[in-house]
Specification:
mainly alpha
Length: 241
């Protein structure tokens, strides 16, 4: 009688432990991504209010970096929105948001130079950029159908379908992993150019570095979130089996 009671209690404890793990594996990725977003927006707001002593705009800083690296075939365009800055390799355009293109803020110079760093990567045929490009098709498929296949496999106990879904969804993680060196390198190029070209003084440089580091953390948080999601799906599937 006592043995049976102990077994029941043990199963209840195991369920409780599993439940807590599920909660943690949902909460940790959520707060990681939320914290990274809050940090980057906070630092952007702070340093977008501080103008650089040279009066250099984001567009001028990006142009200066391109010229210093011998990149002559890239245009610098203005786009609508906030923090919508990007480099488009198909059109060879650096697209700077309204708060960066004409702004002389420290944040604007850092962000514009980061995007110019991406243009330099493409011009130099930067190897990690090519690796990331190879993963993009699989990552697009994985983000679209990987999770649904995992859920169907778990609900209906189709093990083969679940593992196909996990494999596809793992391509998203591989893409994020390949993105890290690309983003870190673009920021490194930006900061080296800012320092070498004296776009900003020493204190202003620290502000630009703080903005770019915060932006880099969003990529780290996204990658960690995807990895924890994969781990959580494996735990759920293992529990059901």
């Amino acid at each position: 009688m006592f043995y049976g009671g102990y077994g029941y209690f043990g199963r209840g404890l195991q369920f409780s432990d599993d439940f807590m793990w599920q909660i943690l594996l949902i909460a940790i990725p959520f707060f990681l991504c939320l914290g990274a977003q809050i940090l980057v927006k906070s630092r952007y707001r702070r340093f977008s209010r501080v103008m650089n002593s040279r009066g250099l705009t984001g567009a001028q800083a990006a142009y200066a970096l391109l010229q210093a690296n011998g990149v002559r075939d890239v245009q610098i365009m203005r786009v609508a929105g906030n923090l919508t800055d990007n480099y488009n390799p198909k059109t060879k355009t650096i697209n700077l948001s309204e708060g960066v293109y004409d702004s002389t803020s420290i944040a604007a110079v850092g962000i514009a130079c980061h995007e110019a760093g991406h243009a330099c990567q493409y011009a130099e045929d930067y190897f990690p950029m090519k690796v990331r490009a190879k993963v993009i098709p699989a990552a697009n498929i994985g983000s679209a159908i990987g999770m649904p296949l995992c859920l169907i496999g778990i609900i209906f106990s189709f093990g083969f379908l679940f593992y196909i879904g996990i494999a596809l969804y793992s391509a998203v993680f591989l893409f994020q992993l390949a993105t890290l060196p690309v983003e870190f390198n673009a920021s490194s190029r930006a900061l080296k150019a800012i320092e070498a070209g004296h776009y900003l003084n020493e204190e202003e440089y620290k502000g630009a570095r703080a903005v770019l580091r915060a932006a880099a953390l969003t990529y780290v948080a996204s990658m960690a979130s995807t990895l924890l999601t994969i781990f959580r799906l494996l735990l759920i599937n293992n529990r059901r089996q």
